[in-house]
Amino acid sequence: MATEVIVIFNKNGDILDFSPRNIDLNKLLEIKDKEVYDDGELIRVKGKIDNK
Questions:
Q1: For residues 34, 25, 11 and 46, what is the CA-based torsion angle, rounded to 10 degrees?
Q2: What is the pLDDT of residues 1-52, one digit of tens each?
Q3: What pLDDT is stored for residue 46 in this prediction?
Q4: So what's the pLDDT on residue 28?
Q5: What residues have CB less than 8 Å from 1, skipping those under 6 apart?
Q6: 3-state SS of 2-47?
Q7: What pLDDT is attached to residue 23?
Q8: What is the pTM of this model?
Q9: Class of residue 25 by CB neighbours under 10 A (exposed 0-12, middle 13-18, buried 19+)
Q10: Cα(first)–Cα(last) distance of the chain, in Å?
């Protein structure tokens, strides 16, 4: 089963926030089915990770 995650980065690539909070940060590198939104200041990535 997959969990939907949202990660917010600044332009330098630093993670500013992510949801849900109970996921392993290493799993953020494995996001699938990504949707990327860039508003010029922040980058928001929405996708899914496996719950293994």
A1: 20
A2: 889 999 999 999 999 999 999 888 888 888 899 999 999 999 999 999 987 6
A3: 95
A4: 80
A5: 50, 51
A6: EEEEEEEEECCCCEEEEECCCCCHHHHHHCEEEEEEECCCEEEEEE
A7: 85
A8: 0.83
A9: exposed
A10: 8
**The pair of three-digit structure tokens given for residue 2, joined into one six-digit string:** 């997959």
Cβ neighbors of 28 (< 8 A, separation 6 or more) are 5, 7, 15, 18, 49
Structure tokens at 46: 């929405």
Sheet (strand 32-38) strand order: 15-19, 2-10, 42-50, 32-38
Amino acid in the structure at residue 14:
D
